[in-house]
Specification:
With 411 residues, this protein is of the alpha/beta class. It has 9 helices and 19 strands. One of its GO terms (biological process) is proteolysis.
Length: 411
Amino acid sequence: MKKDRFIVLRQDGGRPGEVRTEADSALPSRLDAGPEASATPVMTLEVQTLDHRELPDLLQDRTVRAAAPSIPMRLIRPVSRSEADASATGPTWGVQAVRADTSPQNGKGVTVAVLDTGIDPEHPAFEGVTLVRRDFTLADGDADGGVDAQGHGTHCAGTVFGREVAGQRIGVAPGVERALIGRVLGADGSGSSEGIARALAWAVQQGAHVVSMSLGMDFPGLVAELIRRGLPAELATSQALLDYRANLNLFGALAAYARSYGGDATPTLLVAAAGNESRRQQNPDWEVGVAPPAASDGFISVAAVGLGAQKTPDQGLTVAPFSNTGATLSGPGVDVTSARMGGGLVAYSGTSMATPHVAGVAALWFQALIDSGDLTRNTVETALKGSATRTPLIGGVDRLDVGLGLVQAPQ
């Protein structure tokens, strides 16, 4: 049987806490206990080359918290792209819908991470922001990497913390001064769960309060790869399902680690896109469930809403027809204007666009709770979820489609 790369998360008694692979011996990323070492187990993230028959023996090791094969990951691609309205000024409709434009908070003092296709560091939207960039599509985790060759990461980062561009406020939290940019997807939008796990651990250890991820597991791609290896379609699907479940558990374990690493001083919230596979415009019943890793325990999954017939951000908002169902929260995700790679602005639609809105609002809640002295690993998630409202949504909306509702910034 062909051997694969397995991501192994160890707890207590594992080797000294470093994130390493066979080709990555210089990656200086620690998976130790963080500020609350006495209360938090030592964790080790490593990569081993195994075949699936060796996995049961590995899982018998009492130090192994989770193990999963590295599988394909993909960009949750926007469903549409259009030119931004050059005459528009003021906050975008998304910034208004989450009430970030009337919030006394702007994200100052909060560190956010965007794990995506990278960023255009020269874009005026990011002027004055300290960008800490790593390229996890490369084996050596290039410390100077993270430049966007696709445009998606630049757009998402702009929505989280972008400065004003051409008279438009595009960022929910434009006061953020330090951002961690992990390039985990290449120019073609593809990546691996290994790279994303490494980037996630890196972001947590670098002090990220919020991690925004607009990506998903490529289940069809995994099935196709196993078929190319010679497995019959039925066996390939069965094996892919096992690998899918193992990765779901792995990311759940990493989410628990992210929550505990910084203790009450710097807990980390993981925010991920629900996915764009639903097709309600073809059939109202064509609804697909939340895609992983957003479906993993400990992640806040995000659905997309758009402007209704009234074309106002405070009433009549509708569920985006492409948005997957069963998400935790909702954010503006249709015709969202943000930074365009190379300069200027562009409008995209997708749950990828809704996710950075929620991440930005989370940054505002972090700032509010830090300033008030009330920040703990529980209060920030409670505040974010408690802010959600269904009031601006069209009457009769299916609650499964929008979760707790549209997030709102602290007022």
